[in-house]
């Protein structure tokens, strides 16, 4: 029987890249994707996979215990790769409720379903619950040092606090119930299908249209960037070979100041597309704006454990990843336009009928 993986949040940025990665790289597996299609969920992200017989899409909420139990029963779920979350720090500052609800309660619902459906020891040999988490749970670094798996948790935004909470629940289910869990804590991803509220797609879009490029504070905050396909490969490694109960940090060894990233994107666009009507370089669009409340200064990941124990390393250099990313956004203008004008939200209706339907299960 094919190995069946329940992916949550598979219509989001990383989830969609991961579903495509699994269906391509593990053609004998079955993937069931449950996604609520919040503003961040976009079915167009997986349009090319919609007819794959190994793929099933379910429109639903991870907080719905009955639905999740039913999916475990119906699909004989053997692994969960849990991406579904509210993911944007700025939104967590203006409206934390949804972050608490989905990120904490939703994770609890999934853990309960796994606990109820994977009771026997022989199941534990194959079943895996992988929680996709973030480096932000470790807090903020000064100018030196790295986050390791031993760094104490110190979340500082409602988003990172909700992710830290869910990490603790996942660990508690390992220690208390023996649930076969794995955790990954990854740095900032970039690549195709990222929602244009996040720095890189936002800047790419604004810079193409000659709009201001907002930089929070002094632009000297540091993030550690990883190409999304490398993240997908790392998650697959952890799922297949990671030691149950363990956390694995994932990062690209690509520390960059925000201002450096934005300047690089401006320069790449100046080379690749027509100049601004004014003739000015796109760097002239950079606009310093009020800082994000509680803005973490620096993140940097020590990814030594996953490299030593599982042999994972990023395959893409920062230059390759950025080049591919810029090319992708330039070649997929329709995708960006659909997101910006809101028409992506009617994609579901055109494929499956009413957006209000709970499921669009092919079986
Ligand atoms: P995203 O916001 O692009 O996608 C989130 C997806 O989850 C969307 O498709 C949304 O519809 C779905 N979703 C939200 N609430 C749901 C609910 N209640 N039920 C079902 N589906 C729901 O997020 P992303 O950037 O792809 O991040 C995915 C995961 O990876 C998150 O857990 C995030 O914390 C983690 N992460 C992200 C990064 C990053 O750089 N983006 C880095 C490390 C970890
Ligand atoms: O580190 C992993 C995290 O990376 C993930 O857990 C989050 O889900 C993901 O959203 C991301 O969080 P960040 O807050 O680091 O990403 P964002 O793209 O929002 O911002 C990147 C940096 O750029 C951050 O220091 C804030 C800054 N920024 C962001 C925006 C949107 C700006 O200066 N201007 C902007 O307009």
List keywords for this structure.
363 residues; alpha/beta; 7-stranded parallel β-sheet; 3-stranded mixed β-sheet; 13 helices; 12 strands; globular; disordered C terminus; binds nicotinamide-adenine-dinucleotide; binds 2'deoxy-thymidine-5'-diphospho-alpha-D-glucose
- Quaternary assembly: single chain
Integer-rounded radius of gyration: 20 Å
Question: In whole angstroms, how far apart are the ends?
Answer: 16 Å
Shape: globular
Q: Given the structure, what is the number of helices? A: 13
How would you portray this structure in words?
By secondary structure, the chain is an alpha/beta fold. Helices cover 42% and strands 16% of the residues. It contains 13 helices and 12 strands. The strands form 3 sheets. It has a 7-stranded parallel beta sheet with strand order 3-2-1-4-5-6-10, with helices on both faces. It has a 3-stranded mixed beta sheet with strand order 7-9-11. Strands 8-12 form a two-stranded parallel ribbon. The two termini are 16 Å apart. 2'deoxy-thymidine-5'-diphospho-alpha-D-glucose binds next to helix 7 and strand 8.
